[in-house]
Amino acid sequence: MKLNLIGLLFGIAFGAVLAGAQLHEYDTIHFMLRLDEAYVFLFMGSAIAVSMPLLWILERRGIETPLGGSLALSRSMRDVNHLKGGALFGVGWAIAGTCPAPALVMVSSGAMLGLVAIPGIFLGLYLREREMDTTVAAGDGEHRDLEPADA
Fold first, then answer.
1. For residue 91, how many other CB atoms are within 10 A of its CB?
2. Distance in angstroms (rounded) separating the CA atoms of residues 71 and 49
3. What is the maximum alpha-carbon separation in the chain?
4. Most Cβ neighbours (<10 Å): which of 22, 25, 85, 126?
5. What is the pLDDT at residue 34?
6. Hey, CA dihedral for 111, 121, 96, 98, is it positive or negative?
7. Which range marks the domain in which residue 131 is found?
8. Number of DSSP helices (H) and strands (E) in the chain, helices first
9. pTM, entire model
10. Is residue 16 part of a domain?
């Protein structure tokens, strides 16, 4: 219960940051993708600049996670599927002007575009899960530790 409350509070704070930076606004995303708004790139770059070294330090020190396990970052092999997935995500992002977290912020701020985007996000999750059932069973090399879907 305590962990759920912590997750809820972090989610609310994250949503507030997205709303404060106007990253839930359709026009903001399109201006960024047209390279008219540099501050969005700076916002994302600062998030990466803070989180990368922090995660590296936490993993290296063997810090325990809230669930009691050790932090182990995924280091998957580079693959053409990463490019395909990134391109598909980018196309969806450009069309909808949102991605999962900002879509939820859109709905909470009254922007109805989020109600259109969220079912698309769930459809994408479903299709990915279906694809994972076949690729894990086939042994894609990236998910070595996972059991095949039929096992």
1. 10
2. 19
3. 50
4. 25
5. 86
6. positive
7. 2-36+76-138
8. 6, 0
9. 0.63
10. yes
Number of domains in the chain: 1
Provide the token pair at 145.
Answer: 């530790």
Instruction: Compute the Cα dihedral for 6, 128, 40, 107 and give only its sign.
Output: negative
47: left (phi over 0), alpha (psi -120 to 50) or beta: alpha
pLDDT tens digits for range 82-92: 888 889 888 88
Determine contact, residues 23/40, Cβ cutoff 8 Å.
Answer: yes
Separation of alpha carbons 129 and 18, rounded Å: 27
Whether residue 121 has pLDDT greater than 90: no
Q: Which residue has the tokens 């219960």?
A: 1
The answer to whether residue 107 is domain-embedded is yes
What tokens appear for 50 in the block? 């803070």
pLDDT tens, position by position, 9-65:
988 998 898 888 888 888 888 888 888 888 888 888 999 999 999 988 988 888 887
- Flag whether 48 is in a domain: no
